[in-house]
Amino acid sequence: MNNSVSIKDIAKKFKCAPSTISRALNDHPAINIETRKTIQEYALKVGYQKNTLSLSLLNNCSMTLGLVLPSITHYHESSMLEGMEEILLKSGYLLNICVSNESHTIEKEYIDRLLANRVDGLFISMAQESYDQQLGEHIDRVIQRSLPVIFIDRPNHGVASDRVVTDDYQGAFMATKHLIDMGCQRIAHLHGPSGISVSQQRFLGYQDCLIAHGRQVEADLIQYVHFSAESAIQATRILMQSDSKPDAIFGVNDEVCIAAMFVLREMGISVPNEVAIVGFDDIPLASFGHPPLSSVSRQSRKIGEEAAKLFLSKKDQKLEPVTISLDPKLIIRESSLRS
Amino acid sequence: MNNSVSIKDIAKKFKCAPSTISRALNDHPAINIETRKTIQEYALKVGYQKNTLSLSLLNNCSMTLGLVLPSITHYHESSMLEGMEEILLKSGYLLNICVSNESHTIEKEYIDRLLANRVDGLFISMAQESYDQQLGEHIDRVIQRSLPVIFIDRPNHGVASDRVVTDDYQGAFMATKHLIDMGCQRIAHLHGPSGISVSQQRFLGYQDCLIAHGRQVEADLIQYVHFSAESAIQATRILMQSDSKPDAIFGVNDEVCIAAMFVLREMGISVPNEVAIVGFDDIPLASFGHPPLSSVSRQSRKIGEEAAKLFLSKKDQKLEPVTISLDPKLIIRESSLRS
């Protein structure tokens, strides 16, 4: 399909060896400067394009990296991606971005394709299915080939590899501590999908903070949701209709908290005085909620930047795997600020 | 860096010709079935990976497509991307996704890199800078090479090429007509950044609808914003502090409308009775606003699916350029529903 002009075509036109054309195009001093100019102008005119595929076969380096994400519709992931691209662009790398939709089969297929395309490294945030079923063979194969692999957000617990994560546990602990400080007695949790590291870490931070402050962790104060706003509607109704209603909710992300506030408004329950709320991710719309939503910021853009920098610092040398853990920040707004 | 095993390495091990190994790995019946099995098992064990780079040089087909977007932090873009990937994955294509951040220089650099990587086609939503300055040479070069180019969202007016767009003009017309039907007299517009097709089309739809209904288009009812929520704060305040306040706002997207509703709440102005509001994009959080936000849906996911299908239907044949224009849908919620 590519209608491209090769060095051979140009050589034919000028009745000389392809090596002469190659040298002329690379400004080699062995070629007369006038000849170089003529050949370069002709190459531009006919649309000659250096073939980095051939070059990458020679150099064993494709200047392309793979990024496999479970989804890309959330602010956290797209913002992380922007941070990553900013750093990589400067170093001349292109990103092959693939979305697994949390499916192990798709993730595996993408990784095979990326390997076949000879990527120079892989960033991966594992699909829920791979995580749940502890399927890591497809990633082990990458590591066996000495290709740099950097885990993002969701570490692969079985493998010693580089990783960049936010300390979700610490963030959840801070959010829960803040709700305790605000005088909340019965703090509920909208728990993320099980089997995903961020859900688990945020639950553990919530749980351990309650225990550290002499509180009980009550099963009927925990409701499971997906990461979507919709999934929190029913969960919030169940929490508020129980005999032992909560007076605070810590949600696994901002979307579920915005939906929870919507349900509370419908039920005539005031936020923060009857129910205080804290979310996670600090999405741009959190500050425009009614009321503005307190949230834990994950420094999403910085995660991407750090992952890219980690790849660049390690690509030419074998170093011990490191974990970069970014501190979360609690942003307090009206939704949890009790007077 | 790649520690990979080649067909030659395997041939050496089995003391036979590389072509025998290649046939065995491709299950060629000329090779004894036992031998095939032994070679295939060995290849799996040592981590042999088919090199699609070599294959793509032979076939002149990389099975990789480029996608260049101005940004990826909005629901519309990431949702479109998911639709596109779903279709392409089934056909074995990988997407090289690149984010131009609205910069012409970055866009140009990415396109050069994608050409050098021998992509089989290009999807592009042009950067604002390229659009403003009518810079299209970098794209003309792609088209000259007979590489399929499909424009998304923002058409390149100078070039006859395939495109998939939402009819933004029609969507804006519908939104404005709805506000007129609700009895609104002074309909303001939060106008998107100039020079971008979607901003312009949405403004024109608003303008022509007003004119078609005998209304005047008043300069002091139009305020410019970016696509971010933050950018609408000041713009909304200016609108509401003017001598001739609006009783409705049609915003260029949902984020600016959610921020506008925030400002109106702060000012004690009721939505929809004092000011009715309609946004654009129908992001998932629109329905959880206070009040739920009316919005024009662009069918974002479908745009991605249609663009992918268009590429697949045309990749092997030279056909006349087509434009697929998807009908927008007006979703009416409380923010514009006057009693």
Automatic annotation (TrEMBL), chains A, B:
It comes from the Bacteria. Residues 5-59 form the HTH lacI-type domain. SMART domains: HTH_LACI (SM00354). Keywords: DNA-binding, Transcription, Transcription regulation. One of its GO terms (molecular function) is DNA-binding transcription factor activity. Pfam families: Peripla_BP_3 (PF13377). Coiled coil: none annotated. This is Catabolite control protein.
